[in-house]
Hints:
82% of the residues lie in helices and 0% in strands. It is an all-alpha fold.
Amino acid sequence: xxxxxxxxxxxxxxxxxxxxxxxxxxxxxxxxxxxxxxxxxxxxxxxxxxxxxxxxxxxxxxxxxxxxxxxxxxxxxxxxxxxxxxxxxxxxxxxxxxxxxxxxxxxxxxxxxxxxxxxxxxxxxxxxxxxxxxxxxxxxxxxxxxxxxxxxxxxxx
Length: 157
């Protein structure tokens, strides 16, 4: 009986919904960072530093959680997803590199138009990645039984 209760508790997490919600929060965080980059008001550089740093940490944490907790479970439960997971991991590495470039630009206090180019490129890659991930994984995630805290899987968002 305790095993059944634990399985039922893990089913209460709608992993597909969790993924969609995290992606939406990350899209919103990127929007805020882009608005801060566009702002030409006193204190905007400080706000940009805060928003970009928060966004970089959140997106990096999200991908790290997927790499460590979600993808290994999916590989075991759905071995046919190996090529999809490999592509997602490749995207994660590329996005991490872009995040590093953005962080360096923010740290160097580059002008707003340069920061906006970093954010624009990151937005395009991130959106493409999110759409691919949602297209390929949402159906499978709707029935995934994973006994893990959603924050460990998708980051602390």
